[in-house]
Amino acid sequence: MFKATKLKRLIFFLSFDIFIFVASFYWAYLLRFSGIIPEYFKDSLYINGSLVLFLKLFFMWIFKIYKVPWRFFGLNEARKIFLVHIAAVLSFWVIFFAFSDVFNPFPRSVILIDAVISCLIVGSLRISKRMFLDFSKKADAGEPCIVIGATSKALHVLKGLRQGYIDFYAVGVVDGRSDLVGTYCDGFLVQAKKEISNIIKEYNVKTAIIALALSQDELQELFDELTGYGIRDIKIFSLFGKQEIKDISIEDLLARKPKDLSDSVARGFLEDKVVLVTGAGGSIGSEICKQCLKFGVKKLIMLDNSEFNLYIVGEITSSNKTVSKMINITDLQDLRAVFDEFRPQIVIHAAAYKHVPLCEANPKAAVVNNILGTKFVVDMSIEFSVKKVVIISSDKAVRPTNIMGAAKRVCELYALNSNIKNHTEIVAVRFGNVLGSSGSVIPKFKEQISKNLPLTVTHPDITRYFMLTSEACQLVLQAASIAEGGELFVLDMGEPVKIADLAKKMLILSNKEHLGIEFVGLRPGEKLYEELLINKDDARTKFESIFVTDSQIYDINRLNIEIDELLNSEDIAKNLKDIVPEFNHALNLKG
Question: 139 Cβ partners below 8 Å, 6+ apart?
Fold first, then answer.
């Protein structure tokens, strides 16, 4: 009986509004005549009052005020109620002057007095429940927290805290901007950041909610500052996603957030094209597939030799535009059949064995899959006149010290020296680690934390570059969109991250610092530092996160012979060094 419904809400508000509109019009008359309405005006009171009542209800309906529940009433709805009364007054004057004989005599100031009274009471009625709930909610319900940033986001956070969306209550708002310190944010005096320690001591605060839009460096600095004060539960507010207030993650701290991501550029490159993606079930390949659908491809052919991975990416990208093909790219006959059937316009080659220790233990498989697979993809693309081929490469191809990196460098050499102008444009894009890719350090650390194990790091000084998978993949597409063929693009990955520091932050975020870090020594072929991706000689493109680096000219006929020798070699490392002289397989992580 007491359950709220749309009909009950409509009847409730409509009934009260009719009463308010009638009463306010009558009170306007009383105020106009100091409490005694002359007989001369009484007849017109009913006629004019009826017209005003109708106009107000009409415009309340037009502005959809009756579809707004108590809890959603805010400034936008208050503005609409004001506009309702403006519209009603203007409409009344038009009708009044058109039919003045019907509505006279009428004291014209009454319509303005009525509008003010009516607007205030109707608005007050709708905000009354919000005010009651705010005042009736206990100020100390849940755990104390501080809000970082006096912003519009902070208003959303404070509203959510009052309404009990999460089990915390705010005890202060702090901001580092001097022009905001001393002002009020939703009833809280904004304090300087230096006051955080005092607030923590006074209220025993263990939680902070960040309501600021920050760069990666700024977020890192704030995280370090808060953890230095002893705060371990750090949350971040976002208007996007399923949860507005969520625990800060290592991905938030490491995300590069490039400023030059352009959906329009990626869409222009992919829209209405037939696109083939190899390694579609991998971390990079699956994200490329999602973005292909997002940016409107005509058809998407997804290739992978893993049944499980292909099934997963098929579920994620379920669409009538997708075709899943479970083939191995080193099977030339099967690969040719796919190209012949679908005639792709764009090929994005993401298939590769990428894990350094596995490639070290299985060098033959690494060169067959990575080099021969790339060779076949490039050859088929040329044979079937594919417009553009994009080879996904790696920072490990820069002065490689392992089989995987050297094989990737050979792939770059073959692809870029196979380029044929005005026919098939072939480009390579080189970047570092993507956050959360399968088998990478972050998922590994998360698994170890879940099992209450110490985090294993190979060396105290080992560093790596990181970028979000979605951002890296979109930059790949943007690089391809400006390519003319033969370029080796490099993505700006920012500053390298020390893995030991990353491990410490993950322990802090999980509140399991007691697990500690265990250094286990460098693995075979592993570099202590990845080479800098960008150097001073690299050319800038119109995108600040994308550079073009030098690509070595290599005789393709000679390279084909050397690849054949490599595939039949008993000493894979030696033959790789013949092709890639800078390959230093003897380099040991322990040195």
Answer: 169
pLDDT at site 588: 43
- Assess contact for 428 and 489: CB atoms under 8 A: yes
Q: How many CB atoms lie within 10 A of CB 39?
A: 6
Domain ranges of the chain: 6-135, 143-248, 263-434+466-494+534-579
Q: Give bridge partners of residue 276 from the DSSP assignment.
A: 301, 347
Q: List the one residue out of 260, 173, 176 whose CA is nearest residue 218.
A: 176
Instruction: Determine the Cα–Cα distance for residues 589 and 527; give it in Å rounded to an integer.
Output: 6
Q: Which residue has the tokens 């498989």?
A: 365
Burial of 296 (0-12, 13-18, 19+ CB in 10 A): middle
Token representation of residue 226: 């808060």
**Residue 552, C-beta contacts closer than 8 angstroms, at least 6 positions apart:** 413
Catalytic amino acids?
396
Domain spanning 263-434+466-494+534-579: CATH 3.40.50.720: yes
Closest by Cα among 202, 73, 203, 67 to 134: 73
Which CA distances in Å does 184 have to 177, 413, 464?
13, 61, 43
Rounded Cα–Cα distance for residues 283 and 516 (Å): 29
Q: What is the mean pLDDT of the chain?
A: 86
- 130 burial (CB, 10 Å; 0-12 / 13-18 / 19+) is middle
Domain 143-248 architecture:
3-Layer(aba) Sandwich (3.40)
Structure-token pair, residue 326: 């479970």
Alpha-carbon span 346 to 328, nearest angstrom: 19
β-pair type (188-192, 184-185)? antiparallel
Q: Judge contact between 580 and 410, C-beta under 8 A.
A: yes
Q: For 248-278, write each residue's pLDDT tens digit.
A: 888 888 776 677 788 899 999 999 999 999 9
- Residue 164: exposed, middle, or buried by beta-carbon count in 10 A (0-12, 13-18, 19+)? middle
User: 388 φ, ψ to 5°?
Assistant: -145, 135
- In this prediction, residue 334 carries a pLDDT of 96
| Pairing of β 299-304 and β 322-326 | parallel
Pairwise CA distance, residues 231 & 210, whole Å: 12
How many whole angstroms separate alpha carbon 585 and alpha carbon 272?
A: 45
Q: What are the residue ranges of helices labelled H in 518-571?
A: 556-567
Q: Which segments of 22-109 are extended strands (E)? A: none
Cβ neighbours of 71 (radius 10 Å): 10
Model pTM above 0.85 = no
